[in-house]
Write a structure and sequence with these properties.
Strand order of the largest sheet: 1-3-2
Radius of gyration: 20 Å
Strand content: 5-15%
Order of helices and strands: HHEHHEEH
Distance between the termini: 53 Å
Number of strands: 3
Largest sheet: 3 strands, antiparallel
Shape: elongated
Length: 109
């Protein structure tokens, strides 16, 4: 069985719309607790905790225990594998578009 790549972990974590929403809420704050994430979300605290576990395993969030609370914050470095992957394919598409532009100029001077 093939081991999942770091970019695969990030993509899988962000593929779920609920997890993406949770990540976006965390990214908009300095730190936030599970209880605060649960309020108004329509998702149970247990489900929020499971989504946070996936985000943490993908390297997208960090946690800081403080007494009975655990505070979560976004980990920007966790998105690096995704940025690297997009940059790699961005160069590919830029080259293809440049070739297409050249071809179009040759066909319609």
């Amino acid at each position: 069985m093939m081991q999942e790549s770091p970019v695969g972990n990030v993509m899988r974590a962000l593929a779920d719309p609920t997890r993406r929403t949770i990540f976006e809420r965390i990214a908009q704050t300095d730190e936030i607790t599970v209880a605060d994430l649960t309020k108004g979300s329509g998702v149970s605290q247990g489900a929020i905790s499971q989504h946070l576990k996936s985000l943490k395993n993908a390297g997208l969030v960090k946690e800081r225990p403080a007494g009975r609370n655990v505070f979560y914050r976004a980990e920007p470095k966790g998105l690096t594998p995704l940025f690297d992957w997009l940059n790699y394919y961005g160069v590919f598409w830029n080259n293809r578009f440049a070739d297409l532009r050249t071809l179009m100029k040759e066909l319609d001077p």
